[in-house]
UniProtKB/TrEMBL annotation:
Protein name: Uncharacterized protein
Source organism (scientific name): Cichorium intybus (Chicory)
Length: 102
């Protein structure tokens, strides 16, 4: 879907979420704690949300459609993939170019 491609190509870190998803919230807070200010896009607030969810599901390779985390234009995955990367120490190097200096 063009809308997803556009957001992902124009922003370093994008998290597609739903406003009622607690795992989406947890991933968003994790990134903020790591000094990253991602673009958080709540697909349930978009009139094209259903189509976006279907497109994210196709890209997700057996992951839930949200949260869908993109870093540097590439799909990292959902909560399981993000947490696995974080626990293995591999997430911070991916996020380093997008961390704020504050």
């Amino acid at each position: 879907m063009e809308k997803i491609k556009s957001m992902v190509s124009e922003n370093g870190v994008v998290i597609f979420t739903k406003s009622t998803c607690c795992l989406c919230y947890a991933v968003t807070i994790l990134f903020q704690e790591l000094s990253v200010n991602p673009l958080v896009y709540e697909i349930d607030q978009d009139p094209q949300g259903r189509e976006m969810e279907k497109a994210l599901l196709k890209q997700g390779r057996n992951s839930p459609p949200v949260p869908a985390v993109y870093i540097g234009g590439k799909l990292v995955g959902s909560t399981n993939e993000v947490m696995s990367l974080h626990l293995s120490g591999s997430l911070i190097p991916l996020l380093k170019p997008y961390q704020s200096l504050s």
